């Protein structure tokens, strides 16, 4: 699996290259800026591109613009955006079309090596990886008439995992339940919240996030 | 004054008598047409403007013109005097026209032309008479007709040339009648110039012996007589202008603190008038808004008059150059506006101080903002990156220590600590400066604020594109501080944030349904917010009735 990276901090660029390499992924390019990455992706589209959201020269929105550009022009390339801060607004921008092959994670997440490499593989395969903090922010959001109150604690956990992009199998593994049980929880949540259910795991990420954000 | 009237009476009598005796008909009429208006205009000018030499000069011109009629007398003494003075009026016309309006001939070239005119009219005239050009003259010493004829030719050519130079000098300085409504002055200069030109033509016609010389003479006399008539019109216009000074006084009394420029421009008949106020504290000139300006200083058809008070400049009037000719009007207007101008100067100074104060407040805020950005950037690129790298390193170590459960657990705990530190550092950094604002703008930054608020918030941002940074930062803090206040004090169940942009202003509205009673004077939060918004030229208003609900509205100019 081919991975291209744009990260301006040498420490993190080398760290990323190392852990992804150790996990058996093929880091084919690692740059300190967005332009070089974009040029590489145009020539040799990898399975997934990992970008720091703040990149030179201005450290403003170069990384974000590059991510959106890759999503628009190379739909086959998964895009994983890393950031020191999480912004709900940016998450929604990244997901504006669909949650297919997109990830938005705090930089800290790379220290959970297994989870992180798993997220990279998921995004590369067209799935999604939304930071749990984004999801918990949305879940904690106050609502005047809160339909989430109808969910059981277990269902809340499942909803959270679903929103981060976890598959039914992932949910089952995480909660140590059977796949059947996980599927039952998922369909139960859709019914309680009145969200039209969908088989595609990435499409349901968007549906859940949009529901939570509204 | 008495002398003036005496001269007038004698001159008129002389002119009339001379004409009746010698040259009846059209010629006499035209002759009177010149002399009488000069005498009348001169007398009025002398009366109206005693300080100006122009009045006496005009009377003298009329008088000498009348005396030249003596050349047609039969009495030898009178005839001789009349001949001697024949060309002096031409030099005097030149003098009068070039000396308008002050009575002084200003400028080296003008002075040379006037002196040369008199020299020609006296020296060459006397020489040719001494040489016997006129056999009846008592001054004839010898009879050399050829030489005398040559001298006469030289005299007429020189005088014509001087008159034409004089006309050119006048027309070069002709005020632009189109730009400013100063038609009488322009007309006056035109008539002066025309008079000098036709006089020059008359001399050339005499020299060349043209057959239509009498017609030329009539035209010349008619035009020469026109000048003092136009001059009288000019005086009348100045009189009318002075009645405008009366209106100016009324205007100033009716609205002493109002805009001064308009009434002054009306009184001076110069819509292009501008005012500059001297601000001694700043050592510079400023317009009525307190913005620094420089005086143009006589360029580009403009002129300046500085009004002093106790030897200190107070205000400068900048106007069309043609107005310079009306010293009296300017004096009258300046005197009438004196107190009001002083008031306006103080107002301009106050505004300059306000600009300065506002500028320094804005600069302080901007400097603080830049410093905050720098700090956040240092944290982001330094401590935060290192901590992430450290967490990664610990994570890798934990992965490698699979065999040793205790070590692994402690490493995982260490990693948790680092993550917690990162969380705290993130909050600190975001408090110092919300980087998302710089990177992605107000709409994205507000989304996170609204999502994390303690009450349900509906957010609406109707402002496309990026705004100037200081505007985005101020708007962000307005929303952030308001939502914090709502969480702490309002006991609200919902709130709404609306950001709109119209007519160069960003309007931020934050409304809640809480208990109300919020106040900018209590609680430093709202006061600080108001200060921040006002420092960048905006305004913060709060409606917070005691019976509930708070509505906060910030208006920020955004260009």
Q: Estimate nothing, just give the exact number of structural domains of chain A.
A: 2
Largest interface: A-B, 35 and 41 residues
> What spatial order of strands do you see in the largest sheet of chain A?
2-1-3-4-5-6
For the record, the CATH class of the largest domain in chain A is Alpha Beta
Classification by helices and strands of chain B: alpha+beta
Count of folded domains of chain B: 4
Total helical segments of chain B:
16
Low-confidence stretches of chain A: none
Question: Largest beta sheet of chain A, briefly?
Answer: 6 strands, parallel
Order of helices and strands of chain B: HHHHHHHHHHEEEEEHHHHEHEEHEE
Domain HTH luxR-type (chain A): 144-209
Modified residues (4-aspartylphosphate) (chain A): 52
Domain Response regulatory (chain A): 2-122
Keywords (chain A): DNA-binding, Phosphoprotein, Transcription, Transcription regulation
Walk me through the structure.
The complex is a heterodimer of chains A (214) and B (559). Chain A has helices spanning 10-22, 34-43, 62-73, 88-94, 113-124, 132-140, 153-164, 168-175, 179-193, 201-213; strands spanning 2-6, 26-31, 48-52, 78-83, 102-106, 128-130. In chain A, strands 2-1-3-4-5-6 form a six-stranded parallel sheet, with helices on both faces. Chain A is of the alpha/beta class. Chain A has two domains: 2-130, Response regulator (Rossmann fold, 3-Layer(aba) Sandwich); 135-213, Orthogonal Bundle (Arc Repressor Mutant, subunit A), CATH 1.10.10.10. The radius of gyration of chain A is 17 Å and the shape is globular. Chain B is built from 16 helices and ten strands. Chain B has helices at residues 2-22, 26-48, 54-67, 76-84, 88-99, 108-130, 145-172, 183-208, 213-254, 261-268, 327-400, 405-432, 435-440, 442-451, 469-490, 524-535; strands at residues 274-279, 284-286, 292-293, 302-309, 312-320, 457-462, 495-502, 505-512, 539-543, 550-557. Helices cover 64% and strands 11% of the residues of chain B. In chain B, helix 1 runs antiparallel to helix 2 and helix 8 (183-208) packs antiparallel against helix 9. In chain B, the strands form two sheets. A five-stranded antiparallel sheet of chain B has the order 3-2-1-5-4, covered by helices on one side. With 559 residues, chain B is an alpha+beta fold. Chain B has four domains: 71-240; 258-363, no CATH class; 370-432; 439-557, Heat Shock Protein 90 (2-Layer Sandwich). The model of chain B has no long low-confidence stretch (mean pLDDT 83). The longest helix of chain B has 74 residues, at 327-400. The A-B interface holds A 9, 11-12, 15, 18-19, 53-54, 59-61, 64, 84-90, 92-93, 107-108, 110-114, 137-138, 141-144, 213 and B 377, 380-381, 384-386, 388-389, 391-396, 399, 415, 418-419, 422, 426, 429-430, 435-436, 438-440, 443-448, 451-456, 493-494. Chain B: It comes from Kribbella kalugense. Chain B: Its EC number is 2.7.13.3. Chain B: Pfam families: HATPase_c, HisKA_3. Chain B: Residues 371-437 form the Signal transduction histidine kinase subgroup 3 dimerisation and phosphoacceptor domain. Chain B: Residues 472-557 form the Histidine kinase/HSP90-like ATPase domain.
């Amino acid at each position: 699996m081919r991975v291209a990276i744009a990260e301006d901090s040498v420490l993190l660029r080398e760290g990323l290259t190392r852990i992804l390499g150790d996990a058996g992924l093929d880091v084919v390019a690692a740059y300190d800026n967005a332009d070089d990455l974009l040029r590489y992706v145009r020539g040799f589209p990898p399975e997934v591109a990992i970008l720091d959201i703040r990149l030179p020269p201005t450290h403003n929105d170069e990384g974000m613009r590059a991510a959106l550009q890759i999503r628009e022009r190379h739909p086959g390339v998964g895009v994983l955006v890393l950031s020191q801060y999480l912004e709900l607004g940016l998450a929604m921008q990244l997901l504006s079309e669909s949650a297919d092959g997109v990830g938005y994670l705090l930089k800290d997440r790379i220290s959970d090596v297994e989870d992180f490499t798993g997220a990279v593989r998921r995004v590369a395969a067209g799935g999604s990886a939304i930071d749990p903090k984004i999801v918990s922010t949305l879940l904690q959001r106050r609502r005047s008439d809160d339909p989430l109150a109808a969910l059981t604690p277990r269902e809340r956990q499942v909803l959270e995992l679903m929103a981060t992009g976890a598959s039914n199998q992932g949910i089952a593994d995480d909660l140590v339940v059977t796949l059947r049980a996980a599927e039952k929880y998922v369909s139960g949540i859709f019914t309680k919240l009145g969200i039209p259910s969908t088989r595609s795991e990435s499409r349901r990420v968007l549906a859940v996030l949009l529901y939570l954000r509204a | 004054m008495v002398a003036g009237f005496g001269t007038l009476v004698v001159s008129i009598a002389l002119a009339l008598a001379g004409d009746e005796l010698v040259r009846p008909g059209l010629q006499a009429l035209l002759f009177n047409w010149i002399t009488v208006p000069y005498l009348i205009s001169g007398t009025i000018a002398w009366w109206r403007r005693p300080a100006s030499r122009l009045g006496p000069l005009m009377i003298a011109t009329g008088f000498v013109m009348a005396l030249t009629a003596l050349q047609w007398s039969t009495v030898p003494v009178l005839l001789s005097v009349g001949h001697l003075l024949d060309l002096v009026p031409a030099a005097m016309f030149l003098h009068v026209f070039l000396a308008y309006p002050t009575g002084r001939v200003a400028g080296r070239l003008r002075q040379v032309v006037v002196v040369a005119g008199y020299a020609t009219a006296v020296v060459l005239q006397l020489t040719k008479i001494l040489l016997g050009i006129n056999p009846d003259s008592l001054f004839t010493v010898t009879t050399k007709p050829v030489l005398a004829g040559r001298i006469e030719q030289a005299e007429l050519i020189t005088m014509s040339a001087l008159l034409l130079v004089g006309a050119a000098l006048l027309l070069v300085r002709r005020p632009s009648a189109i730009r400013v409504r100063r038609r009488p002055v322009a007309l006056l200069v035109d008539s002066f110039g025309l008079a000098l030109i036709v006089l020059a033509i008359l001399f050339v016609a005499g020299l060349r012996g043209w057959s239509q010389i009498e017609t030329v003479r009539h035209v010349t006399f008619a035009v020469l007589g026109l000048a003092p008539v136009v001059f009288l019109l000019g005086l009348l216009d100045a009189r009318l202008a002075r009645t405008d000074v009366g209106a100016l006084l009324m205007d100033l009394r009716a609205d002493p603190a109002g805009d001064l420029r308009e009434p002054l421009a009306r009184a001076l008949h110069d819509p292009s008038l501008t005012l500059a106020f001297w601000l001694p504290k700043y050592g510079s000139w400023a317009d009525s808004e307190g913005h620094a300006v420089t005086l143009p200083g006589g360029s580009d058809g403009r002129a300046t008059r500085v009004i002093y008070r106790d030897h200190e400049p107070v205000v400068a009037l900048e106007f069309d150059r043609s107005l310079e000719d009306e010293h009296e009007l300017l004096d009258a207007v300046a005197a009438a506006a004196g107190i009001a101008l002083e008031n306006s100067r103080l107002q301009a100074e106050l505004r300059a101080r306000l600009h300065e104060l506002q500028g320094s407040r804005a600069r302080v805020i901007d400097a603080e903002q830049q410093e905050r950005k720098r700090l956040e950037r240092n944290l982001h690129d330094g401590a935060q990156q290192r901590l992430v790298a450290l967490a990664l390193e610990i994570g890798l170590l934990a992965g490698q220590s699979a065999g040793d459960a205790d070590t692994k657990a402690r490493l995982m705990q260490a990693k948790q600590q680092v993550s917690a530190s990162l969380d705290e550092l993130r909050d600190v950094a975001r408090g110092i400066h919300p980087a998302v604002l710089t990177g992605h703008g107000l709409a994205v930054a507000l989304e996170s604020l609204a999502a994390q608020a303690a009450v349900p918030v509906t957010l609406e941002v109707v402002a496309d594109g990026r705004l100037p940074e200081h505007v985005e930062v101020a708007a962000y803090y307005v929303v952030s501080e308001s939502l914090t206040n709502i969480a702490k004090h309002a006991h609200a169940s919902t709130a709404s944030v609306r950001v709109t942009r119209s007519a160069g202003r960003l309007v931020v509205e934050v409304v809640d349904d809480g208990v109300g009673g919020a106040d900018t004077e209590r609680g430093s939060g709202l006061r600080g917010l108001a200060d921040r918004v006002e420092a960048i030229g905006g305004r913060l208003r709060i409606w917070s009735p005691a019976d509930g609900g708070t509505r906060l509205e910030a208006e920020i100019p955004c260009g």
